[in-house]
Amino acid sequence: MRKSKASKIRTRIEYLRTVIETECSATTCRESGKCRHEGEKQAARHALGRLLEKLKGAAENDRDEHAEAWAKIYARGYDEYGNTYSMGNKYRSGQSMKDRAAGIRADIKMARAAGKAPLVEEGSGLMSQALETYRFDPIGEAPAQIKFRVKIGRGYGSIEINVDNIPQDWGWVAGEVTEYEGETYTRWHRSQALKDLEAELKSVGEAYNADFGSNLSTDCFAQAFFVFVESDDPATLARRAEYEQRHRKSRASRD
Ligand SMILES: [Zn+2]
After folding, report:
1. In a 3-state reduction of DSSP, which class is residue 158?
2. If you measure from the C-alpha of residue 31 to the centroid of ligand 1, how many angstroms do you get, rounded to a whole number?
3. Ligand 1 centroid to 109 CA: how many Å?
4. CB–CB of 15/6 below 8 Å?
5. Rounded to the nearest whole angstrom, what is the distance from the C-alpha of residue 12 to the centroid of ligand 1?
6. pLDDT digit string (tens) for the chain, length 255 residues
7. In b/e form, how buried is each residue of 237-251, taking b as 16+ CB within 10 angstroms?
8. How remote is the CA of residue 3 from the centroid of ligand 1, in Å?
9. How far is ligand 1, taken at its centre, from the CA of residue 128, in Å?
């Protein structure tokens, strides 16, 4: 996408629609007849599809006091023909694991880029609700310092999405546990925001999955691959840091 466009874009939906609708003007793409940016457009369609699904759900929920506001934002997601961007659960079955991982990476990258534009317009009277917009776009709303890694698991049967560099006070809630001998230790629980982020990443990954006739009643599972989302709690991170330090020291003493 051309950078100059972004400055005029007011909302996340507009950003995604611009990526989707702007025709590629790159000379190399026109000359070859094959646009290199198709993956970017595809990722924007997925991001908009996910966003609209969630907004639609909120708009349809009568108990939500903001339902009308979300419905208005939702309506903006339609193109001029009244089409919405939906995403099917099996939309890219039959891909290689490499392409699936690349697609998931592109989806996350697009969600992060679009997340820089506000979901609600400034001065629309909706800014007071901006705090709860995270639930519509957990990937776009996650703290900027978070890093995502997508890799193919051993044996090519799974894809792992790692969430790294999570701010502790955003992602984790400490719980004191007292053992029967009176000793206490801290058990870390995921915050709601981290749970939402992990669920969204899982659904992004599962969208690339294909099901070749799993049947719950016969316990037959025939999925193409598994999607794992991993985030390490502060205790695990501390243990790993300690281990690495010891490892470094023992290596240094050997030299
Ligand atoms: Zn292009």
Report:
1. strand
2. 10
3. 17
4. yes
5. 22
6. 444 444 556 788 889 988 888 888 888 888 888 888 888 888 998 888 888 888 888 778 766 667 777 777 777 776 655 565 655 555 566 678 898 999 999 999 999 999 998 877 766 555 445 456 667 899 999 999 999 999 999 877 899 999 999 999 999 999 988 888 888 888 999 999 999 999 999 989 988 886 665 555 555 555 678 899 999 999 999 999 999 999 888 877 776
7. beeeeeeeeeeeeee
8. 14
9. 39
